[in-house]
Design goal:
By secondary structure, this protein is of the alpha/beta class. The chain contains 15 helices and 7 strands. It has a 7-stranded parallel sheet, with helices on both faces. Bound molecules: guanosine-5'-diphosphate and magnesium ion (MG). The site of magnesium ion has 4 residues, from helix 1. This is GPN-loop GTPase 2.
Length: 307
């Protein structure tokens, strides 16, 4: 987790935003719906802003949706382009209408909300190659939102070493490109128990990303992957050298899991340093120095998803 130091002390009315990203189907919309309820119960003035122009089955009531501005379907019909091109076009269109659409709407909502969950589009190329979403995020930062990217990745990707190595590379690439406080999440962790027989290592191997030598050995077991040994070794060593990628496990339907993730996110975007619902010196200190023991962390973060 990349962490931001407290800058809010000088800001009059701090505003916060979680940028929920991750491949289609990784659980972004479900997370937004559950986080909305959860944060509301904590008393936060929170709302979801849908920035995904192809978001179907929104299970929450957004305070604002990009689909009021443009939809993938309209683009496909009017521009006679395919779904991927239409999505890129929508992202460009959004980035071109920040000053006359997104920001005025957010400022208006600012009267009643100071915490936004941005449900973002999933296509990875929007974050790794394209600049439109980066432009949106940069502009929000300049608008003095304390942002954190919450990158959801289906924990199913742990089931095969080759999938996991691709996940690591994708997470690192996104983190470096976005250069924002960042929390990587393995979503649908409740399903890990079901897949556990397929996992080659303990769950904490995947969350902590400390020693990838074992992953490399496993990759070499597969003849199809063995011929890429040098490439895989280079990727593993790069991920280890940066030492930035680690994951939080999330089961959106578990209150404890949502609470643990909230603690990480609050540290990452600096919410914890501001007059939030946890204002005591002890809770600040606990967050600041990571006062939890390794055993306690294992008990809460890893154990529920084992056996
Ligand atoms: N078991 C389980 N399923 C989940 C969880 N989060 C999301 N899902 C399911 O994953 C599917 C895709 O979720 P969705 O939120 O639409 O993904 P999006 O495309 O990233 O917005 C849906 O069927 C959700 O019910 C979770 O924590 N546990
Ligand atoms: Mg969605």
């Amino acid at each position: 987790m990349m962490q931001r130091f407290p800058t809010q002390a000088t800001v009059e009315n701090p505003r916060y935003g979680q940028l929920i990203i991750g491949p289609p189907g990784s659980g972004k919309t479900t997370y937004c719906a559950e986080a909305l309820k959860f944060y509301r119960e904590l008393g936060r003035q929170v709302g979801v802003v849908n920035l995904d122009p192809a978001n179907e089955n929104m299970s929450y009531e957004p305070v604002l949706s990009v689909m009021e501005l443009i939809t993938v379907e309209d683009c496909m019909e009017h521009l006679k382009i395919g779904p991927n091109g239409a999505l890129m076009h929508c992202a460009e269109y959004l980035a071109d209408h920040l000053e006359d659409w997104l920001l005025p709407a957010l400022r208006k909502l600012g009267a009643t909300h100071n915490y936004f969950l941005f449900d973002c589009p999933g296509q990875i190329e929007l974050y790794t190659h394209h600049t439109a979403m980066a432009r949106v995020f940069e502009r929000l930062e300049r608008e003095r939102y304390s942002l954190v990217t919450v990158n959801l990745i289906d924990s199913h990707y742990c089931s095969e070493p080759s999938k996991f190595i691709a996940t690591l590379l994708m997470a690192l690439n996104t983190m470096l490109r976005m250069s924002l406080p960042h929390v990587n999440v393995l979503s649908k962790a409740d399903l890990l128990k079901k897949h556990e027989t397929k996992l080659h290592f303990n769950v904490d191997f995947y969350t902590d990303v400390l020693d990838l030598k074992y992953l490399l050995d496993k990759l070499d077991d597969d003849p199809a992957m063995r011929k890429y040994h040098k490439l895989n070794a280079a990727i593993c060593s790069m991920v280890e050298d940066y030492a930035l990628v680690s994951f939080q496990l999330l089961d959106v339907f578990s209150t404890d899991s949502m609470l643990r993730l909230r603690n990480h996110i609050d540290k990452a975007n600096g919410y914890v340093y501001k007059a939030g619902e946890e204002q005591t010196v002890n809770s600040l200190l606990a967050c600041a120095v990571g006062a939890e023991t390794e055993a306690a962390r294992m008990e809460h973060d890893v154990r529920p998803y084992m056996e």
